[in-house]
Amino acid sequence: MGSDVSPACFVAALERQLLCSNYRAGSSTGAGSVHVGSCDVHGRDGSIELRSLQHGVIIPTDPLTGKVTGSRQHCSFNFTKEIDSSSPYLFKAVATGQTLKSAEFNFYRINYSGQEEIYYIITLENVRVVHYSPVMHDTRSVTGTGHMEDISLSYEKITHLYKDGNILHSDSWNEKYGCH
Q1: Are strands 157-162 and 116-136 parallel, antiparallel or unpaired?
Q2: Rg for the chain, CA atoms, rounded
């Protein structure tokens, strides 16, 4: 047993109120709960399950000397998801340049008791959807792949939290590090 990680364990819970621009599911008056994504797992209702995720931070270096040649660069935060009820909102966010207050990515695993738990959280602040691309793979040759979309986010600040031990680090693209 132990800490097995299931392949469908990445869930993004975008700041729903900002993403939806005051939309509340089930009501035209603004009351009620918000359900953006299609996840129906208990405790994650309305979240967006991800199929893949990729992100990086790069420090430019001279390939011959290894000397740092510039400030670190935050790459876009990319993920792939199935097309679902959140898709029009993500498209609207990229089309209008809307800034989202935050986006939270929860990573799940099965603990020693056999229960699912969040063990890692990545939080983005002041987020923009900078790329939206529907994708349809050749479904005749790949099983389990349907109508997907690739999304890229830019952000002002990123925080990584490993919950066991509360190990945390944040970085902002405009923060300066090093000796002054």
Answers
A1: antiparallel
A2: 18
* Sequence-ordered list of residues with C-beta below 8 angstroms from that of 148, at least 6 positions apart, any chain: 51, 80, 81, 82, 83, 134, 135, 136, 137
Give the pLDDT confidence of 111-167 residue by residue, as tens digits: 899 888 889 999 999 999 999 999 887 767 666 667 899 999 999 999 999 999 999
Domain assignments of the chain as residue spans, ordered by start: 10-172
Q: Distance between CA atoms of 21 and 81, rounded to whole angstroms? A: 21
Q: Token match 């670190």: residue?
A: 72
- Work out the percent of the chain whose per-residue pLDDT is above 90: 40
**Cα pseudo-dihedral 144, 149, 154, 157, rounded to 10:** -40
CATH architecture, domain defined by 10-172? Roll (2.30)
Q: Is the pTM of this model over 0.85?
A: no
Compute the distance between CA of residue 64 and CA of residue 74 in angstroms, rounded to an integer. 23
